[in-house]
Structures
1.
Amino acid sequence: MAPEISWRGLTATLVVLLLIQPSISIYCDDDDCYDLLGVSQYANSSEIKKAYYKLSLKHHPDKNPDPESKKLFVKIANAYEILKDESTRAQYDYAIAHPEEVFYNTARYYQAYYGHKTDPRAVLVGLLLVLSAFQYMNQLTRYKQALDMVKRTPAYKNKLKALELERTGGATNRKKSNKQMNKKMEEDLSNELELQIKGAEKPSVWGLVGVRFILLPYAAGKMLLWCVRWLWRYKVKRAPYSWEDASYLTRRSLGVPHDSWNYIDESTKEDLIGRRLWEKSNLQSYMAEMRKESKRRR
Ligand SMILES: *[C@@H]1O[C@H](CO)[C@@H](O)[C@H](O)[C@H]1NC(C)=O
């Protein structure tokens, strides 16, 4: 059961994630920072400082146990953080005067406030990125090593020779286009080989930790749906297995990986599926049959 990625599902997941994500709020949220401190937009720094000390004393949680007051205390402190610094105050004034530059203002806000502090979300994203990069490099190296090893085997060299002969057919202009030919052949062969090398899959973006993490809700949802559908169809309604599901059961009982199954020809697949190998007795008799066959061949 390998849920495959579909673009429709991916888009749906992203939409859900964006909805779950709390809406981005910058500076003093929906409040005006100056209003929170009760000062005018033209107040100088000492006025702002004075206003802040007065209000923070009034709403300090130690003096004022009212939960609303506590909320206000936090808001006031935040507003003061922004207005006490000339540069962040200027940024805030700019954001108020240019509400249309949403992205620029948001970026500047995060630059100022999370640039030096570490946002746990940023740490998580960074960690996932680093892990994914390592994973990708590792996969790429292993894949290349496996490919190199295969290319050094006599079987590969013979195949290359055979292919070369077949293509050129001892043609006259062999020298001229030899290099080009070789390159193309090499590519063809390695494409063919990619399908055959097990244990070293070509690196895929979908398998990376970071991508998996983002797709987790989607994959889990898809898996759940799959299980429910399976139970309903085959356990409750006792419907006969569809071709696709019978393929899956057959593949699983024989321990054939998904990719390899795709390269089995249709008539063999049909024969295998017809044997209903997911039933233990059928599998056992099939295995016994295969053993006998291989002995006979030897
Ligand atoms: C700020 O403004 C107040 C009142 O207008 C004034 O008394 C004070 O000197 C000013 N302070 C500075 C640093 O400009």
2.
Amino acid sequence: MKSFLLAAWILSALLSFSLCQERQYYFVKKFLNWDEAQRYCRKHHTDLATIGNSKDVKQFLDIVSSADDDVWIGLYSNINWTWSGLLNSVGSQYRNWESSDYDPDFISANQFCVCIGDNGGWWDYDCAKKFPFVCYNAGTTEFVAVDEAMSWSNARTYCRHNFTDLATIGNIKENQWVQTLVPTGYWAWTGLYRDENIYWSDKSSFGFSNWDHISNLIGSDARICGATSKARSAKWKFLPCQTRLPFVCYSFKVMKRIVKIKLTSTGALNLSDPEQKAQLLRKLQEKLSESASLKFVEQPKKDKKKTEL
Ligand SMILES: *[C@@H]1O[C@H](CO)[C@@H](O)[C@H](O)[C@H]1NC(C)=O
Ligand SMILES: *[C@@H]1O[C@H](CO)[C@@H](O)[C@H](O)[C@H]1NC(C)=O
Ligand SMILES: *[C@@H]1O[C@H](CO)[C@@H](O)[C@H](O)[C@H]1NC(C)=O
């Protein structure tokens, strides 16, 4: 009996392939604000849409092909302006945006640092941009202009090393003072900045990005929410979270296929032995793509003998 078992090494086995999980998007044509849309998606699907790569973008575009206008996706950002110079928390709420209607405008979702113009108005700008800057010196309680163009973080290092920090502007008088230090026709960095704080609703890590090169008005909102549209090729922007828009949810779609395969072995193999079975799976797995996961599936009871394979 034993020799028969070992000789007949033509086996058939049922294997189930679980290919990688893919996001399945659902376009919901109800007009809800972002929070309501999030609740809807979490109730009926997994969450508001996360778009994690360019393949997702393509699928997403297929789903919203019947929509010309904006739709919510699962993106949001917390807005938390902070002064680099911690010494001066009094008056830290003072702001003098260039235009209260149009600034901060967060163009291309890439402007996290604030500069002051020679007219005293403030702009948010790309922190990598090189501008002269204004430091604060606690020893002399004076603002100090540095007429050397640097990125915001290099300007901060310079101020912290040579003085106290970048300038904190706490009121209109201080703003007028700092304004006089800005070279004519230029901007200068101030100490105001914010961290990116951009998140997906489902807590996926934020890596891939697909921003539209337009402004994203922040106003005085503490949070702004992500939208996109077919008309803008699914490029992202931010809108006030109270806006009522249709939205896109997702669920995970697990692609599963059951296949029957025939195995031929020259050596002795005992498939009643869990360790040998696992080893065989590992060998098969090596031949397949990483995204596929394999396991044996039980065959129907009437076929008891094969089940043990
Ligand atoms: C805002 O940012 C500052 C500095 O990073 C931090 O100390 C503070 O806790 C943040 N506040 C909120 C509400 O996130
Ligand atoms: C301090 O200032 C000097 C010029 O006065 C400059 O060369 C140096 O790089 C500054 N230090 C830092 C850390 O930026
Ligand atoms: C196969 O493996 C099982 C479990 O390890 C063991 O009980 C059985 O004796 C083995 N059969 C042969 C033919 O080696």
